[in-house]
Amino acid sequence: MKALLALLLLSTPALAFPVTVQSCNRSVTFDAPPQRAIANDVNLVEMMLALGLRDRMVGYTGVSGWKTLDEELRHGIAELPELSAQYPTREVLAGAEPDFFFAGWNYGMKVGGEVTPETLEPLGIKTYELTESCIFVGPKARSTMQDMYNDLLNLGTIFGVEDRAKELVAGYEARLAELTSGVDHSKPLRIFVYDSGEETPFTAGAYAIPTALIEAAGGKNIMDDLEKSWATVAWEPVVERNPEVIVIVNYGDVTAEQKIAFLEGNPAFANIDAVKNDRYVVLEYVEATPGPRNIRAVEKLVKGFWGK
Predict the structure, then answer these.
(1) Residues 290, 225, 288, CA angle at the centre, nearest 5°?
(2) What's the confidence (pLDDT) of residue 76?
(3) Residues 102/58, Cβ–Cβ less than 8 Å
(4) Nearest to 209 by CA among 279, 280, 301, 275
(5) Is 225 helix (H, G, I), strand (E, B) or coil?
(6) Where residue 78 falls among pLDDT bands split at 50, 70, 90?
(7) N or C: which end of the chain has fewer CB atoms below 10 A?
């Protein structure tokens, strides 16, 4: 009996703990897999679901205040409560008694704000930060597809599902290679990402994942010299750089169709190649932010850029 018990103990993933992962500029150690997790924003929630971690979650935050859950996500988190429509307060998080918070800078947390890894630690809540958001607290680095893979692999380590994470990432890498195998990257198309705003547009810069998605699909973000992740710019440089395709991020109260109508109805944009030739690619918010649907986003971009 003792021998059988010893064998069972040796086979349990819990014996792999403690584990330590890098989260932005911090090393975070977990003595056991989290059992009461909260994720902020739709893309981070979907990472948890992709890894089969629905049963480890006690809720989510930061969705209905700006975005909507599509049918796929609604089904995935059925019966899970949304604890806060926008960014959660420390009090809201404490009330749910979680042991883990998956968020990012400007994805549920703000530098110097009420909710940070340091303010949650005394409550017994460990925090893992979205890799794309690390530029707000550490060295700046251009966004790459590896950012999303890195988060999935780290979550796999944290929750003791490393094999599942590795298999998932390997599948994404293979699919990405397949999607982009025939793309000519030597002559990239000029691309502008239009998130929102009429007086001044909100767009993706060098450190946001759409830049990596666009490059994978054979394009060049005309704002990739913007030393930001997401930021507001003036329309003048957009017109001057003359994008051949405009990528529309679809979410919130203003639909993609309304954004396109605004572009086409403004005489100032009449000479932009993308507007003249009616060349738009619509990405849902959950596709244009780091997460499993980034691969689907590249597929849309390849089709929109090259007709493949």
Answers:
(1) 20
(2) 79
(3) no
(4) 301
(5) coil
(6) confident
(7) N
Contact criterion met (CB below 8 Å) for 263 and 247:
no
How sure is the predictor about 66, in pLDDT bands with cuts at 50, 70 and 90?
confident
What does the alpha-carbon distance between residue 20 and residue 143 come to, in Å, rounded to a whole number? 23
Helices 294-306 and 209-216: crossing angle in degrees, nearest 10, is 50
Domain coordinates in residue numbering, the chain: 13-174, 184-306
Same fold, 13-174 and 184-306: yes
Neighbours of 5 (CB within 10 A): 9
What long-range pairs does 13-20 form, CB within 8 A, spacing at least 24?
A: 13/160, 13/161, 14/160, 16/160, 17/160, 19/157, 19/158
> Residue 252 to residues 76, 219, 265, 285: CA-CA distances in angstroms?
21, 26, 21, 9
CATH number of this structure's domain 184-306: 3.40.50.1980
Give tens-digit pLDDT for 130-158: 999 999 998 888 889 999 999 999 999 99
Structural element, H or E, at residue 283:
strand 280-284
Rounded CA gap, 158 and 164, in Å? 12
Residue 59 to residue 198: CA distance in whole angstroms: 34
pLDDT, one tens digit per residue, over 210-260 is: 999 999 999 999 999 999 999 999 999 999 999 999 999 999 889 999 999
Q: Which fold has domain 13-174?
A: Rossmann fold (3.40.50)
How distant is the alpha carbon of residue 226 from its chain centre?
A: 19
Residue 260 DSSP SS3 = helix
